[in-house]
Automatic annotation (TrEMBL), chains A, B:
Residues 87-160 form the Phosphoribosyl-AMP cyclohydrolase domain. It holds the Pfam family PRA-CH. Pathway: Amino-acid biosynthesis; L-histidine biosynthesis; L-histidine from 5-phospho-alpha-D-ribose 1-diphosphate: step 3/9; Amino-acid biosynthesis; L-histidine biosynthesis; L-histidine from 5-phospho-alpha-D-ribose 1-diphosphate: step 2/9. It comes from the Eukaryota. The keyword ATP-binding applies. It catalyses: 1-(5-phospho-beta-D-ribosyl)-5'-AMP + H2O = 1-(5-phospho-beta-D-ribosyl)-5-[(5-phospho-beta-D-ribosylamino)methylideneamino]imidazole-4-carboxamide; 1-(5-phospho-beta-D-ribosyl)-ATP + H2O = 1-(5-phospho-beta-D-ribosyl)-5'-AMP + diphosphate + H(+). This is Phosphoribosyl-AMP cyclohydrolase domain-containing protein.
């Protein structure tokens, strides 16, 4: 499926904060009759002029990539919430331009010599929120949110084969993803929860005790939160703060497991609050949480929105 | 620097849990006089036999990688705690073997046609804890902990050029890394803290109010922990749990910022607890935390250690 580099560029609608790294032109290709720079064009011109200006900037960006001798660069898709590396492919100029315009992670298939958008068959698209280039400009991150499992095997990511496991000759059921620390901990807690279904005649582990006794769990969460606060109230060393925060996280994650809530769900909530203004957030919470709004808890979102 | 694929394989010492994906041989090349499989060799043979068996397994692993027409595969270095993608390079057979044996992320330089270990000049090595192959076996993750900034520019990662920023013509001081949700939030809180140094004549934001008043901050942390617990005590919906956990995380992260503690430090603590037994953990905490140990808080590590 060959497509134009700039198909649908008009639909661009990313939002973020940041700096311009690329050489900034005067949009002369896009708007030759104007000598003003892009910022001025954006502020005063009609939509069509603006679209042409964006088109010109995308071309500048594509020109700045260091394509290899086959016209390709490496592209890595990463989950914006969990940080999991979902998959890696290659992109050519058209694939990157298509991703910029469609916001769906798109690659170039070297075996089929054509573009392909992840999810075009499975519908498990990767919705790209931002794209990053590396210092050499030959490697790209698609930072996005997947609609479902990325791997064609049904696995969340394509990376589920551990060299450690192979060399140590370990055998367990199912695959072990390349999990970072927080998600390894989540996975272990989840495993302990699953083990509860099988009656055991040994003393239950700490995690299982917490899972089996939510009253006890809640008393631990309140206690650990208190201990975290005391590290600042009693001016304790930062290492103590890190340790107490570890305790808070772990115990709270056991509660999440009991409620079948994933850490990713929590981060999804944070990201949505983070990217909207406090006023929108307040509105989205609606009538049902009026009491919460009155105590001011919602106000912190206002301080985090990049626009405020 | 050409090195043998199997230099120092004897020093292998990874530890993890998981499954074997690779075809399992009987180590006949390594230990032809024995008909028993690797597991038995590991259990009974002398060190030299064991080393030969590991060597054979590494060869099997290297044979299973789908090297491209130049004998290369993509290798991505990822921070095991934060999930940040640090850099991407290419590996050949020797580079991957060297990484397996040395546990320092090693690549193949296409421009210099030689191996290079990240950090050999800067001393900012990436200490590899595990390696993952993707489903196609042509892409590799080095999951590890960097000793310092990875990029030659001094940036934590090589990915600090945002396409969004370029297209929106945003200009800010310094670079903006490819941050996932938790670290975007941490970065914003840190920015608010930095802004406190400049007197402002507008009403302070919620985050700044918390930063300026640690008594108020601690009352919010205790309150949010209580609300998180109430979602289980009052059998509220999981969406409410996710929302309250978001509140706990955000307020606790403001405390971390006040104490100059990074989320990465907390995860580092968790990972160390996670990978050692409760007994080792108890010992490592030493005399100073006897009171904590007595209340049983340390015991949960025991339940998380893969060996217990």
């Amino acid at each position: 499926m060959a497509v134009s580099s700039l198909r649908c560029i008009q639909s661009l609608g990313f939002s973020s904060r940041g700096r311009a790294f690329f050489p900034v032109g005067d949009c002369s290709r896009a708007n030759a009759r104007k000598s003003m720079n892009c910022r001025l064009v954006f502020a005063s011109a009609k939509n069509s002029d603006r679209d042409l200006c964006v088109e010109s900037k995308v071309e500048t960006l594509l020109d700045s990539v260091k394509w290899d001798d086959k016209g390709l660069a490496v592209a890595i898709a990463q989950n914006i919430d969990t940080g999991a590396i979902l998959m890696q492919g290659f992109v050519n100029r058209d694939a990157l331009a298509t991703t910029i315009s469609s916001r769906k992670a798109t690659f170039y298939s070297r075996s089929r010599s054509s573009l392909w958008t992840k999810g075009e068959t499975s519908k498990n698209f990767i919705n790209v929120h931002d794209i990053f280039l590396d210092c050499d400009r030959d490697s790209i991150i698609y930072l996005g949110k997947p609609d479902g499992p990325t791997c064609h095997t049904g696995s969340e990511t394509c990376y589920y084969t551990s060299v450690n496991d192979f060399l140590e000759h370990k055998q367990i059921e199912g695959s072990r993803q390349a999990l970072t620390t927080l998600y390894s901990l989540e996975s272990t807690i989840s495993q302990r929860k699953a083990e509860l279904a099988v009656p055991q005649h040994v003393k239950p582990s700490w995690t299982k005790r917490l899972l089996l006794d939510s009253k006890f769990l809640c008393s631990k969460i309140r206690e650990e939160a208190d201990e975290l606060c005391r590290t600042i109230e009693e001016n304790e060393h930062g290492t103590r703060t890190a340790s107490e925060m570890g305790d808070v996280l772990y115990h709270a994650m056991v509660l999440l497991a009991l409620k079948d809530v994933k850490v990713e769900d929590v981060l999804d909530v944070l990201r949505h609050r983070f990217s909207q203004s406090g006023i929108e957030e307040k509105r989205s919470r609606g009538q049902q949480n009026e009491a919460m709004e009155e105590d001011g808890s919602w106000m912190w979102f206002q301080t985090l929105c990049p626009c405020t």
